[in-house]
Amino acid sequence: MTPLKFELDNGTVVETTVRTLLNGGYAGRSQDDVRAHVRELAELGVPAPTETPALYPVSPYLAQQTGTVAAPHEHTSGEAEWALVVAGDRPEDLLLTVACDHTDRALEVHGVAWSKNAAPDVLGSRAWRLVDVADRIDDLTLTAWVGAEKADTEIQRGTLAELLPPRYWVGVLEERGLLRPGTVLLSGTIPMHGQVDQFAGAWRVELGDPSTGGALGVAYDVERLPEPIG
């Protein structure tokens, strides 16, 4: 099992062991836009989901707080997301943090669920209690930057209003009996800017709160694995 630690704004450190890791997919607030996106991906060879929004179980050890992601080839990339962390049994134990879902794009054309299990979900080391930001959740911002060596070119920018809200996913977890300590769920992502190369050597994602000026960040470098023998 994977232990994660999150520092809250009051300096408290919350530790949880990941027992269930889930990736939301096709999770835009507008499902009409999602269906259009599914058709676009189908033209690129990515299999369409049987229903949307989708939810993909991921091996728990892939939830990581790391500064380096190892990649087997050049066609992997991240995605700016928020993550819901169930750190206890009380409502105040639901944490919101920033995340980057690194995905094997070459494998994605064979199965999205497979591609999600081929690379880590990188989570930030700081978090907010969901109850503290729930009343302004749609105003929170998601921004991602990429680059060959330094993540300084913007590739994603939007607000959480573009995605299904945490309360939706809390309901899904309750229905499935998964709203329990050790569950981590990533939100799905917002659109990428079309002219920016996502296959970058560095990724950085920020979850911002305009009302307070606060922000949660995560960043990592992508390093190629050595070439295989055989």
UniProtKB/TrEMBL annotation:
Record organism: Spinactinospora alkalitolerans
InterPro entries with a match to the protein in the record: DUF2848, Fumarylacetoacetase_C_sf
Protein name: DUF2848 domain-containing protein
Superkingdom assignment: Bacteria
Molecular functions per Gene Ontology: catalytic activity
